[in-house]
Amino acid sequence: MSAPGKTLAAIERFAMLWLYAFIALVIVIEVLRRFVFDYSSIWGEEAARYAFVYLVWIGAAVGVRNRSHISFTLLADILPPRPATVLSMFGHLAILGFAIFACYWSVEPLLISLEFGSVSEGLRLSRAWFLAAVPIGFTLVLLRTCGNLVDDVRAFRANRRPDVGEKLFD
Q1: For residue 141, is it within any domain?
Q2: Does the pLDDT value for residue 167 go beyond 70?
Q3: Which residues on adjacent β-strands are paired with residue 126?
Q4: 162 occurs within a structural domain
Q5: CA–CA distance, 66 with 141 (Å, rounded to integer)
Q6: Domain of life here (predicted)?
């Protein structure tokens, strides 16, 4: 992995750790407030929800980077190295197409929110901060998919099988 790739991986890892800890802390605080003090905040659930949205999109990019996203490898497992690599590249091109489509359609709500100044209900922050999670997440997916495509082209040239993530089931 290149130096920029390692830096991005470290940033993703740190962001996921911080977001997960934040969600857990907010939930513990809200449970205590609700069941011990008979009072809950208006911001707690919303803050945890939006942190979870960011966590999911960053996690999706990490899944693509690690090649641990859902994939069907039955055909690739029985093919010789070059056809298996071509099949892997086809899958990455499909992910790339979907990520471009999702990025394109997720920017419009973000721009509308910025134009009209909409705010979230509980936190009273600009809704654009939360709507930005989707284009940011899919941009990370785009970057990681491009990296996987480069790795697959190298594997194709070297006549070796493409890298695969860990299998959940055998």
Answers
A1: yes
A2: no
A3: 119
A4: no
A5: 11
A6: Bacteria
